[in-house]
Amino acid sequence: MIEKGDNVLVGLSGGKDSLILLVALKHLQRVSPIKFNIAALTIDPTGGKFNSSGLKNFCESLDVSHIYYPYPIFEIMKIRNKGSPCSFCANMRRGILSGIAKDRGFAKVALGHHLTDTVVTLLLNIFFSGRFHTFRPKTWQSRTQTWVIRPLIHLPEETIASAASSMKLPLKDLECPYGKNSKRTAMEKLLESIKKESPQAEYSALSALKKAFWAD
User: Fold this and answer.
1) Contact 23, 62 (CB under 8 A)
2) pTM assigned to the model
3) Which of 58, 72, 83, 188 is a good FRET partner for 179, with 20 to 30 A between their CA atoms?
4) Which CATH class is domain 7-212?
């Protein structure tokens, strides 16, 4: 995913996933023979109401440059009243992130999507879009000429949550105003019910993805 001389921009929301990703990449940067650069970008979907000082301080403790970019995504979602707010928000964030990456010379954008995110997105697309589609470990964005990489994609959420807790990371994630009643939340609950019957369900889905979707 990362090559010699890469400039990698990490999407840092302040949640456990993005914090673990940043810590992991910083550690990899220290020990890997492959030299690459890291910076972090926080997109504030409130348009400036989010206090990002904690994230800035955390980045400074890791010796990572931090970029703060306020944009009123939540307000735009409210005005447009989209039927799929999660997808709309994710697409906006990714577009902003990739655009800034291109403007500032970052060849790769790193996102904290994990295995649970991947399976939930797969369920959403199967049941609501009628297609077998979800995240890929590495995706080329032709419009911005950047790669999107997801280094945590083989790890389930519970593993990341456990690591974040043991490391006592300073979580600063925003609560989404649309999260409680979204389709994504419904699919998360469905996955949890499936895992009660089949604890290895996420890994089974991962195996299927490797064979059918990621093979190409």
Assistant:
1) yes
2) 0.92
3) 58
4) alpha beta
